[in-house]
Known about the structure:
With 73 residues, the protein is an all-alpha fold. It has helices at residues 2-14, 18-30, 37-49, 53-56, 61-72.
Amino acid sequence: MQATSFTVFLNGIFGTSPMVSTVEATAGISAGGKTGWTPAVTGVLFLLSLIAMPVITLVPDQAVAPILIFIAA
């Protein structure tokens, strides 16, 4: 709860939506995360994904949309 409160505070400073941090925390808990390491590891993996962005941008949006719909359903 403290981590979510802190991220909501930072979201206000940077002008982003606080829903993102709440949804990420809820997703980590529902996926089985039991410690504070879950959001930390997720954050590190997101940072590492920046290295792969040139390759990821090669995939067209039309190919990603069905996957996102399938995941959300």
